[in-house]
Specification:
It is a single chain. The chain has 174 residues and is α+β, with helices and mostly antiparallel strands. It folds into two domains: 6-104, Homing Intron 3 (I-Ppo) Encoded Endonuclease, Chain A; 136-173. The chain has helices at 17-24, 57-65, 95-101, 105-113, 136-151, 154-173; strands spanning 27-29, 34-36, 47-50, 53-56, 74-77, 90-93. The strands form three sheets. Strands 1-2 form a two-stranded antiparallel sheet. Helix 3 (95-101) crosses helix 4 (105-113). It is extended, with a radius of gyration of 21 Å.
Length: 174
């Protein structure tokens, strides 16, 4: 189960007692899992909103009951139930381990061991913290095609030219 929403990794998870009471009121404890019954993200992960930001419920539960999530790690659901917030079912692991344990471990394993893209370019090494591996030349080609298309839009082009003028002006004025 991928826990790939990097926005939440850097947000402070300091909650008031009232916020934590509200959090626990949205948890249904069953014989095995502690299911999140509040709002959910599209993929089924629990969503807890506090301090004007959204947090994944399993991460809030882990931090509240176990402690900080070690840097560079994500939380894996050992029970495979993404709505579960039971800390006994949550384990900090690397993105790679989390992906390989996920719903499609064979596909993930093939992607991690792939040496060449479908056009024959060498694939880069897997970089921890990155959500995927991408072929550099293919990515550059897609970006160039996108930029070319965007530059044909007169409104976008005018904004881009203005931004470049502002940048040069700031650079000269130091």
């Amino acid at each position: 189960m991928s826990d790939a929403s990097n926005v939440h990794y850097t947000m402070s998870m300091d909650f008031t007692n009232e916020q934590l009471d509200r959090f626990w009121s949205k948890v249904e404890v069953t014989g095995f899992c502690w299911n999140w019954v509040g709002g959910k993200y599209v993929a089924g992960y629990g969503r807890f909103t506090a301090n004007g930001a959204g947090f994944r419920a399993h991460r809030v539960s882990y931090v509240a009951l176990v402690g900080p999530i070690p840097e560079g790690l994500v939380i894996d659901h050992l029970c495979r139930n993404v709505a579960c917030v039971n800390p006994d079912h949550l384990e900090p692991v690397t993105v790679r381990v989390n992906t390989l344990r996920g719903r499609s471990p064979q596909i993930a394993a093939e992607l991690f061991t792939k040496e060449f893209c479908k056009w024959g370019h060498a694939m880069p090494e897997f970089i921890p913290g990155r959500r995927r591996r991408a072929c550099g030349p293919c990515h550059a080609q897609r970006q160039a095609k996108y930029r070319k298309k965007k530059m044909q839009d007169p409104e976008f082009r005018a904004k881009k030219v203005e931004a470049q003028r502002e940048y040069r002006k700031r650079k000269r004025n130091g």
